[in-house]
Amino acid sequence: MRIDRSSYGALFLGVALALGGCANQPGTAKQVSNSGEAGHRGAGQTVSDATINSKVKAALIADEMVKARNINVDTLRGVVTLNGTVNSASERNQAISLARKVEGVFDVKDNLKIAG
Predict the structure, then answer these.
(1) Are 107 and 49 spatial neighbours (Cβ–Cβ below 8 Å)?
(2) Which strands make up the sheet holding 107-114, listed edge to edge?
(3) I need a labelling partner for 89 at 20 to 30 A (CA). Which of 63, 78, 95, 100 fits?
(4) Which pLDDT tens digit goes with each residue over 54-84?
(5) Pairing of strands 38-40, 71-76
(6) Would you give the end-to-end CA distance of the chain in angstroms?
(7) pTM > 0.85
(8) Torsion angles phi and psi, residue 31, rounded to 5
(9) Where in the chain does DSSP place strands (E)?
């Protein structure tokens, strides 16, 4: 079977297009870091959202100041969202600080309301 040079070009283009589609796979998107700069979740840095969620909840439960039962934690692509009610600004600040310290957290969104 004889393949002419134009067939190689078409084959190369097809492979390049197929591989280019892999760039949009999950886990390759840019993330927002705690410092506000764009980051990247590479294979060595990736911590699953479920793991992050569990660690943030555990940190909140272990803390004496934070009433963890009143705080809901959601994590998506390393971004933690805290929802719920706290008793004071210092409790809110403590919850945010604890969440930011968890490995794999890129950003924390504060949706906490102060009761009263």
Answers:
(1) no
(2) 71-76, 79-86, 107-114
(3) 78
(4) 999 999 999 999 989 999 999 999 999 999 9
(5) unpaired
(6) 82
(7) no
(8) -115, 160
(9) 30-32, 38-40, 71-76, 79-86, 107-114
